[in-house]
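Exam prep: given the inputs below (a chain plus magnesium ion), describe the expected output before reading on.
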Amino acid sequence: MREYWNSFASLLGVLAFCQSLLQLIFPPQLRFLCLKFFNRIFHLFSSYCYFDITEIDGVNTNELYNAVQLYLSSFVSINGSRLSLTRALNSSAITFGLSNNDCIVDTFSGVTVLWEHVVIQRQSQTFSWRPLPEEKRGFTLRIKKKNKSLILDSYLDYIMERSNEIRRKNQDRLLYTNSRGGSLDSRGHPWESVPFKHPSTFDTLAMHPQKKQEIMDDLEDFANGQSFYQKTGRAWKRGYLLYGPPGTGKSSMIAAMANYLSYDIYDLELTEVHNNSELRTLLMKTSSKSIIVIEDIDCSVNLTNRKKNNKRNYCDPEVRCGSGSACGGEDGGNSITLSGLLNFTDGLWSCCGSERIFVFTTNHIEKLDPALLRSGRMDMHIYMSYCSYPALKILLKNYLGYEESDLDYHVLKELSDVVDKAEMTPADISEVLIKNRNYKQKAVTELLEAMKTRADRNFKCGSLRDKISDEEEQEKRALETPNEGSEFEEPCKEGENKEKKKS
Ligand SMILES: Nc1ncnc2c1ncn2[C@@H]1O[C@H](COP(=O)(O)OP(=O)(O)OP(=O)(O)O)[C@@H](O)[C@H]1O
Ligand SMILES: [Mg+2]
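Solution:
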């Protein structure tokens, strides 16, 4: 045994001597070239080839890296021996991942591949125009050279598909916001995200069941319509305009849509967008299977029609000063224009990515520019109305567990008579029901009382309004030089005006 150790020690000595000799003879550059050369030779004769998938590709986030990470996380918990566990802020799901510099084997169509998660420290002196993560992360895929075509043709596509599926099914969907005002994070993203957990669904949404079904069918058709959109040459996107008084469920409807289709939501805050090109960047960074929302579009920014904009926009950075210029305009330096927004929803840029839904909401549809409303731009205009009787029944069921048959016939009759006249929003009604949800009878009685009071008030206000506007009308007509002949037409005009007011 001692002899064996002696010869091993002398061998090490010889090796150390050879190494120092080599270092003496070969300068470092030459050594590096030699190593590279031997590496090449090794790869030439090796039966394997390698693919590096880095987390950041130049300056952009590499989607394939995220997809691989997600894909591996689906089976790494069973096969891996050393795992990294992560849980995003506010998320309920724990994600398994491959530990740093660890490997895992996968099989696809009978072919075995090896994945290695490579993590190295980033050199601090590396120059970058934005902060980069401290570690360089990537996956290395090792496959047999003879299987290269199979892997490149189908395996990577399969990974992308699977990762999308996994993300939709297992992971929390995300609610994105651009509240950082255009600045990018270390991975080059202008959006910030939190897990999306809104409980609103089409079941909890109080609206006419037929209208609800129409919307659900439309969403379903859209989600399954890839080949239709392809065949007809249309971008795979759809626009919904939700309008109606506050508290009628526009935001709840968006949440229900996202939950129904399992889509992410991008809540676009227009006041945080400085110009049209920033808007385009935001659009480019949205993923497919998502809903892009602009709430209260009438009050977000001063969007006037394109003609007016053209006149006014001598100070539009994109027209004159070049993108990013800081020349202020009427709207205090915010140079996002209606045409920019229209391009965002409808132009060439709107179809980067696919399967996306645009939803705009407003309380005042009459304030919107007709260009935004023309058909093809917002495919469906959905009026979210005051609570109707069918919607009221849904609220009674959801909040109190009351079916129609559980309520007294007379109470039902009273409710159905007064609900339209009361003009109460589902938000108003749900407030009354929540307050008394432990005393169901009391809840119904109080609701009926509240509705009657509102209906009474509306009636009085309505007749007062009619009276005032009739007087105003008469005064106006008196000032507009009345002539004898016009008296003949008077009753008819008045009738018309009343009709208009009603509508
Ligand atoms: N149609 C509805 N069905 C069920 N609940 C509703 C409905 N409308 C409103 N609500 C309730 O009222 C609350 C406010 O509704 P929501 O925020 O969706 O209204 P909104 O129309 O978006 O209002 P705003 O125009 O002020 O943004 C919600 O939390 C929800 O509980
Ligand atoms: Mg809302």
